[in-house]
């Protein structure tokens, strides 16, 4: 960081360099125009001896050597000059001052060929040389005040607001990397967005047509499938992402230690879909799992009602009825079987009446029932009846496990 003392020291050095330039130019004038100075009475014996000793250095032989040395020291003094920036100063003006100054400064030696007396020639030579010197000094000073960035061409200062971005490719076995192109000081450069830990979750947000799939999703799919990951993809615009994922899987299937399978669940086109069972007995261990699966499937019937009525949209009797169908009557852990029973039972109010009668009857008959039938009635129907009435519910795990085991084995 530049301190005030450093700035003042630099300024003194620049001023001293400029004084050296003026001193060399003054000695040059005294030697080259000595007859005119003698005519004006501006000479002295002491001055002559000092100038004579300086002239022995060889710097003042000829007309151009001393002038070029003075010009060199002037340019050195202008290198470290920091002037106040001015938007009105233009490059053309600076070039005009420097070019005209150099021309007048160097061509002034032609004055000695004029058919005039010595004092007039000397005065013209000194005047033209000083004029050229001042023009060069002015042009150099303005050069330090020139604003390099054209503010009129960048009124919003966009170029100065650019900054360096990550250009390294940082990869690991879990990462995904998105290629980028950015602008830095008017130059287009390539970069990378490195997500080295995607397990911390990634949110991709944007309006329709913003390019989420093109710039982000397709790169993630390509790189993660290439690295041997499994994927669960929700294809809103079927079959765009599905086709892409399938082609990538065919391309990189040799990267997997275990050859992966490709499944599609399509509720709109049943000719192009695999089948799944949301009531799979393998996912149920007790009656609580069956109740949760039943409740989840019922909520999916009309998902819009959840926002209006919350989780209480479906009554306890509805959930108990579906559990009853799954484990008590139908005996098959599939949605079509349950739906088929509901349809053939009459639907609507008829269903509710039949269920209520079955549940109540089962609960009463379970009082004296024994064996597997009693366990089924007590667990499936009696518990549902008690639950709806607010009573205690007995443990139905034994029957549920037997039923599941039967479903698995059957």
Automatic annotation (TrEMBL):
Organism superkingdom: Bacteria
Domain YWFCY: 5-148
Residues passing through the membrane, by range: 19-37, 57-81, 93-114, 120-143
The keyword rRNA-binding is annotated on this UniProt entry: no
Cited Pfam families: CtnDOT_TraJ, YWFCY
Topological type in the membrane: Multi-pass membrane protein
Residue stretches making up the Conjugative transposon TraJ C-terminal domain: 296-406
Gene Ontology, cellular component aspect: plasma membrane
Major subcellular location class: membrane
Record keywords, A-Z: Cell membrane, Membrane, Transmembrane, Transmembrane helix
Entry's localization field: Cell membrane
InterPro entries referenced in this protein's UniProt entry, alphabetically: Conjugative_transposon_TraJ_C, P-loop_NTPase, T4SS-coupling_protein, YWFCY_dom
UniProt keyword Transcription, yes or no: no
Name by which UniProt lists this protein: YWFCY protein
